[in-house]
Amino acid sequence: MDLNMPQLGGLDATRLISAAHLEVKVVVLTASEDDADLFEAIKSGAQGYLFKNLDSNEFFRLLDGVGRGEPALTPGLARKLLGEFARPAPPAQPAAPHEAQSLTEREREVLNLLVQGITSNRELAEKLVVTENTVKYHLRNILDKLHVQNRAQVVAYAVRHGIVDTAEREPGAN
User: Fold this and answer.
1) H helices of the chain, where?
2) What's the number of CA atoms in the CB half-sphere (13 Å) around residue 102?
3) Pairing of strands 48-51, 27-30
4) What is the pLDDT of residues 17-42, one digit of tens each?
5) Confidence tier at 89 by pLDDT (50, 70, 90)
6) Which member of 1, 38, 59, 151 has the lowest number of beta carbons within 10 Å of its beta carbon?
């Protein structure tokens, strides 16, 4: 995967592929030496991050390792990752209610359905008349925008902050 692509950026494409196809291993091949790109690529689901000027023998050795479940990282990049992710993270701050305003209309529809108790990707996709992959994409965006980790947290957040109208709940929904 290249980071710079014309229609969909490499990081976004990596997120979509990683969420939709767990069996697919994405390795970023880039000229970017920006640490932020490295960290975001790995957080997006990439199994490796390699520079385009890497020696071909090393390149193929690392790619072969991905097939065995190993990360495709040079020792220098592995040190950078360990240095970044070994630090204790600051306590997570829930999103302020104004951050919920950044949700798109479609993301709000998904959120409303979640609050109504429709939580399976299949059911959400049927209600919205989209694919399950599209539902996964919207869910990932909602979780990222509201700074929560899972569906239960996003529902609790939405109800607590009045993002959705709980009166819209379907009869019998928990």
Assistant:
1) 10-20, 35-43, 56-67, 75-85, 97-100, 105-115, 121-128, 132-146, 151-160
2) 12
3) parallel
4) 888 888 889 999 998 888 888 888 88
5) low
6) 151
pLDDT band at residue 168 under the 50/70/90 scheme = very low
In the chain, the domains with their CATH numbers are 10-85 (3.40.50.2300), 97-168 (1.10.10.10)
> From the centroid of its chain, how far is CA 20?
11
Q: What is the pTM of this model?
A: 0.50
Residues in Cβ contact with 81 at an 8 Å cutoff, skipping those fewer than 6 apart: 38, 39, 42, 73
Query: How many whole angstroms separate alpha carbon 74 and alpha carbon 54?
Result: 9
Q: Which amino acid is at 41?
A: A
